[in-house]
Amino acid sequence: MNGLDFEKPIKELERKIEELKKFTAEKKIDLSSEIKRLEEKLENLKLSTYSSLTNWQRVQLARHPQRPYTLDYIQMMMVDFIELHGDRNFSDDKAIIGGLAKLENLKLLVLGHQKGRGTKENIMRNFGCAHPEGYRKALRLMRLAEKFHLPTLIFIDTPGAYPGIGAEERGQAQAIALNLREMMQIRVPILVVIIGEGGSGGALGIGVGDRILILENAYYSVISPEGCAAILWKDSSKAPEAAEALKLSAQDLLNLRIADEVIKEPLGGAHINPEEMSKTLKEAILRNLKELLEIPIDNLLKKRYEKFRSIGVIG
Fold this sequence. Notes:
Layout: H1 8-27, H2 32-50, H3 55-62, H4 70-77, E1 79-83, E2 96-103, E3 106-113, H5 119-125, H6 132-147, E4 152-158, H7 165-169, H8 172-183, E5 190-199, H9 200-204, E6 211-215, E7 219-221, H10 225-232, H11 239-246, H12 250-255, E8 261-263, H13 274-293, H14 297-309
């Protein structure tokens, strides 16, 4: 991988270090001091680069093709995952996956958006853009969790709901609106984690929960930066300016009291060390779920309703 545009100096330095190490091995020449100097320079460059990312650069990291997806986290964190399929009405939307699993000793329902790796799988997963049957499947599974008193864990990672004619004909807007209403009333704890992209109603359609966690380089927004730029400036190249104006970063969302907690990522992004990211995220999920399970359900529903009603209120 060549990396993102802003990562090019880092990648060039990494290549130079690898070349020196290879040269040392082949020619039996001691260049350890030079290699050590460059490695220190690389570490300082990474710290300075990743500690001062713009919102647009974080959007790029959120979209990184090697970033862990929902199924990756399920595989790394959980056991006994049984995937459940279909909305019992039209079809099984593979852009949203869900099922029963165990997180340590905690039985739960887990669901979320699922992107693909490579062209073939991305087409099958519709690039993580769900159809209405995906949202109906998610609601069916959440009602199942309610029936069996299982806490629900939701991973969000989508550019947005699929906007095609077929999706609109099958009631895309209605499916999302229904989920918003019904998720307010689901009588089990709901924990939402934004792991990558949180785009528009496509994210919000499974995004109502008692707490919202967000990874450090994920984003959550009413519209993509490109879409916002195309509307406001008639120029999608102004996406970096739009990303700043939208206040879509994890820290922005924490400041606005939309997100409840920011989960730190490995230096360079979640894709650099998925195992470390999974461990950090697992600890945060378990801690939050255990706290939510201690709250009486009527109080929990009241707090859930108040949380979303207060979003956007100034003062």
